[in-house]
Amino acid sequence: MPLYTSQHLKIYNSLSGEKENFNPIHEGNVGMYVCGPTVYSNVHLGNVRTFMSFDVIFRYFLHLDYKVRYVRNITDVGHIVDDVDEGEDKIAKKARLEQLEPMEVVQRYTVDFHEILKAFNFLPPSIEPTATGHIIEQIEIIKKIIATGIGYEANGSVYFDVVKYNETNNYGVLSGRNIEDMLTNTRDLDGQSDKRNPQDFALWKKAEPEHIMRWPSPWSDGFPGWHLECTAMSTKYLGNHFDIHGGGMDLKFPHHECEIAQNEACTGQSPVNYWMHANMLTLNGKKMAKSTGNNILPGEILSGDNNILSKAFSASVTRFFMLQAHYRSILDFSDDAIVAAEKGYKRLMEAVDALPAISAGATSSIDIASWKQLCYDAMNDDFNTPILIAQLFEAVRYINLLKEGKETISAEDLTSFTTAVNAFVFDVLGLSDEKAADANNDKLEGVVNMLIAMRNQARADKNFALSDQIRDQLIALGIQLKDGKEGTSFSI
Description:
Shape: globular
Strand order of the largest sheet: 4-3-9-10
Largest sheet: 4 strands, parallel
Helix content: 40-55%
Number of strands: 15
Mean pLDDT: 91
Number of helices: 16
Strand content: 5-15%
Low-confidence stretches: 187-191
């Protein structure tokens, strides 16, 4: 039987403001869409925390034996700097400043995004679509919205009529905002807008002559509105009605609110059963911002090249630190906090490493089954990683008592305990045992150095066929040799 049949997962739904029992649309299957990055700069630490929250959620669904389709997009069209309908888009602005093609900017920062997430041991999503790869789908959605009378064209741009939509629907259902209040508190300063109402948002924008990123459409050469891409890609890969849509808390309004409106205008139904939002990360008690210098990039934590932390910290320690807070809570990052997290991480890993040396007895004096269910209870309560970590430290206490001979454990319980500890630490939380990884790296280095010595001897013996064979086979394994005056080195 799949594990999910014996566990009762509850998820906090931003739409209802309550924890709800998770009931997938299709039994045994989960469809999850998470808003990905706009690739115009290095991924920042707050992004990493958001994506890490959904990485753990993805991992837990997999652990429960669900078949998961996890879609996380890449925004490579570029949207407006202030996430409104006027101004200069982020990717085009970066391209102009760095004198690059927009797609060079996209490629550079997409690679950075993937490298950082790989360093932090993220599982890749099932599908990672790009906005530029789905322009046709976005145009088709605009046509449907225009056909309903809710979308309208003005001077080559197309807008979503929020007031007309609100006549039969509820614009504000997710954020709890009242459209009358929004209209009252909004002033159209220049009076020259093509919009019927100040709250209307762009579905398609006509490109100005200097705008680099543009595509042909029935209305003008232009580019899609920011909110449209996620509607197009989520419905393409998950259907008009799917299980989970996630993102940062800052996307609840207007981005996710507009997504709901677009979907309902097109399909006549709410697109998502569970809306999930991860909270923000602060630095030394203040909002992170490049402009104030109160900012640190993920790579700067790993390298130690910063003026905020006392030293470099590993990706696993940083990951462990972040998971000590619930994904819906604000988390403050500081040197003291990550130093404390490093101590806790090492204590946990020392206990995990000690597990194989524990001997089984005839009976158990520890209730392993109850402890194991408490771990599941933590994750079943809206993915409560801090409570799970507390239970893992209870396991650390058990391990130390077993090592000292103060408690006993049966062979069956020891197998169950070891399997559960490893599953929650490595599979669900996604931590890595850096000590074990370092040991494996040392072994690899020893083997490669031995092969380099054999190659050097073959070259001295003028056995160039063997020398080339060793080099070529190492290259095939991704190990590059470099011959220099001081000898041969290698890189992976």
